[in-house]
Structures are given as C-alpha cells and as structure tokens.
Amino acid sequence: MILNLLASRISKDIAIDLGTANTLVFVRGKGIALNEPSVVAIRKKGRRSSEVWIGEDAKKMLGRVPESIEVFRPLREGVIANFEMAGLMLRHFIHKIHKRKTFVRPRVIISVPSGVTPVERRAVRDATLSAGAHEVFIVDEAMAAAMGAGLPVTEPMSNMIVDIGGGTTELAIISLTGVVYSNSIKVAGDKLDADILNFVRKNYSMLIGLATAEQIKMLVGRAYLDDEISEVDVKGRDLMDGIPKTITLNSNEITLAIMESVNTIVDSIKSALEQCPPELAADIIDTGIVLTGGGALLKNIDVRVRREIGVPVIIPDDPLSTVAQGAGMMLDDIDLLREITSN
Questions:
Q1: Residues 241-289: tens digit of each pLDDT
Q2: Is residue 175, in this structure, part of any structural domain at all?
Q3: At the N or C end, where does the chain have fewer CB atoms within 10 A?
Q4: What average pLDDT does range 323-336 have in this prediction?
Q5: Which contacts qualify for 331-336: CB closer than 8 Å, 24 or more apart?
Q6: Whole-model pTM?
Q7: 300, 325 Cβ separation under 8 angstroms
Q8: What angle do the packed helices 322-330 and 141-148 form, to 10 degrees?
C-alpha cells in the first residue's frame, strides 16, 4: 500500500524547461503536456482585484494593449527578472497540468542556464516552491538538453551540446555525467530578433515589433548568405510620418542583419573546442556537435557550423523540446538526478 501511495505521488512529478521565450512542462508518464510562451499580462481593476492572462493568451497582447494592461516577460536572458510574475506563471502552469487541484504538490525538476549565480538559482527554487512544488531539483539546461537529445552522458566519452534558446546559448562538453566544459552566452534567439528590428528601423525608417521580427527570422533568416533568395512582406509604422506602411525584405538582408550575432555563437563553439582536453576533442570528431533549442531551426545553422569547425553536426527531430524531455527522463532515475545535481 505504501508503494502504491508513493507511486501515485511520483506520478504527479513534473520537469520544467523555464525558458525566456517559452515554458515547457513534462509530466512523468505523459511526456510534454504544456508548451506556452513565458508571458504574463495583468489588468489592474483596483487595489485587490485584477484580470490575468498567461501564456499564449498573454503573448497575443504584446504591443497591442491599452495603458490599463501591463504585459510582462518574467524571464530575461534565461533567469528570473520578475519574481512575482514568474511565481504567478509557474503556479498557473502547474495547476493547469494538475487540473486545478491545488492540493497536489509535485516534485519538480527545473532547468537553468549554467552561468546563473547562486542567488539566481535560489530565486528559481523559491519561485517554484511558492508555485506549489514540495521538492525542487535544479539542473543545468545543457545537461538536460544532452539527455533529451539521446546523448550517452553516463559513458566515458565526450559529447558536445549547444542549446540555442531565447535568452542564452548554452554550450557544454559532457562526460561521465559531469560537465567538463560549460559556457553561457547572452546571444540567442531574442538577440537575433532585436538585430532584425534594429535593421528595419535603421535602413527603412520603419518600426516593427519583436513578434514581427521573430516571424521574419523564421521565414527568411539564414546562418550564411546563399543563392536561394526568398522574400517576405513586412508591415510596420513609418518613423517619418507615423503612418502604417509595407516593405519587402529578402533573405540576404536579414542574413546580414543577424550575421554578427550568428558569428558570436559560432565563435563560442570554436572557443569551447579549443579549451577541451585533447582526448575529449578527439571524441567530438566522431560523435559530432548536437544543436538544440529554437535557434537550431535557423536555416543553414548546422551547415555553417560544420563548414567552419569541420565536425559532424546533428539536430534532433524536435530541438525545441530536448531540455524538457531530458529533465523529464531524470524523473525516472532519481539516483542519476542526484549525481548530476551534485556534479
């Protein structure tokens, strides 16, 4: 009976990829059960009452709200920037997963960038506990991504993972459940979006929103210039006369707009390999580099890395979910989880 009770309790356990752009929740025995934008919107009605939108509903409001509504992105560059909003968002997602059963207090594994400070880790832990968790394990995003991508992290051989998220790019070389090398740079999907926004403003005197910039990146963004040129029509506000207008952008323009940031990501991969012990570097020639995260979907990013570094590059079938999948796999092996967190 005790074992049945314990099994019932464990079945409520979840793993969370708390991302700058999106939050994914993995439920043990079910897989990815939630994938929503990390956005909160609030309309203040009085001192006590308010109207709240979270996730997809809140993201639709970005750039479209009256003064009475404030929209928050609780995470910035992979860490909690607004503790109150992050706690509110986590509580909403946890309750949504458990059908609003507030008495359920799950064990939670949550991923964070490798470069976070002890204070930032504590903020993540506290926000998760306040959202209803009874126990919280914090793991590095890169380790979770490596497991989610199917890399043999427990074997005595090196595996390199590059997780290009919204706020940060996480790089790690992993062997025997330990991180031999790790680095976290604040150049990722959000920076590419900002590059596109600034390019349009500077070259066309037109203002667009970050959501529009993200769409442009997804439609015509490239990791390097090529002969396959595509175009997209973009609507925005003319900065000269203030009226709406439409322009046409091509893939070469956008590639040049984001080139500096893409170069930074590629250079960080080179730097990781330069600092890697020779034996482990030799392994990576055979095992390759695995790219995950939303940035792995940028067209030609794998070809660009392979050409410049000269090793195989692999992108999993679903690079967006690897961190959540990997953290979820740890729910089935608590001993491995404790080993990873102690390392």
A1: 999 999 999 999 999 999 999 999 999 999 999 988 888 888 999 899 9
A2: yes
A3: N
A4: 91
A5: 331/10, 331/13, 331/14, 331/15, 331/26, 331/28, 331/107, 331/109, 332/28, 336/154, 336/177
A6: 0.88
A7: no
A8: 90
